[in-house]
Amino acid sequence: xxxKFIVLGAIAAALMAGTAVAETPATATRPEASSASVAKAYxxxxxxxxxxxxxxxxxxxxxxxxxxxLLVDQTGKIQTxxxxxxxxxxxxxxxxxxxxxxxxxxDQPVEAKTASSAPASTASTKTTETTTQxxxxxxxxxxxxxxxxxxxxxxxxVINLTADQLKAMSQFQYN
Length: 175
What we know:
This protein is an alpha+beta fold. The chain has a domain at 41-110 and 154-168: PRC-barrel domain (SH3 type barrels), CATH 2.30.30. Helices cover 20% and strands 29% of the residues. Strands 4-3-2-1-9-5 form a six-stranded mixed beta sheet. A hairpin with a 3-residue loop joins strand 6 (124-127) and strand 7. The longest helix has 22 residues, at 2-23. The chain starts with a helix and ends in a 7-residue tail after the last helix.
């Protein structure tokens, strides 16, 4: 009797393992394209979904808001960026529409502003493989260097508008 349960258990385990193996999809490979050539072919292109939530700064490196939505025309070209501006932690934030061409995208991180009593001429930047140190006088801010996987999207966007100009724009609403 005991042997019967062991045999049935072994058969059930074999059937379940066979089903699991059958459901595992085979990896699709293209013989003419290696992963290095694919990455090179798409170099300089960004993943669109990663741009939603991207911080938007003005020319003075002051954060104005973030990209909430991107609108495309019928051909798929991005025409409009909807920015969330103002507010605190989403409360009081309002949406404004700007022409996508007004945004300039930057791969380098925004340098953190630090208090310093030293003259600006003594400021220096040191880069290592794992962090970027921005030193201004006595204060230092360390920020991780972007990894290769983060190169598929920009660090932030810059727009040539002030916070007051964005707040004065009419609020965007979906109809």
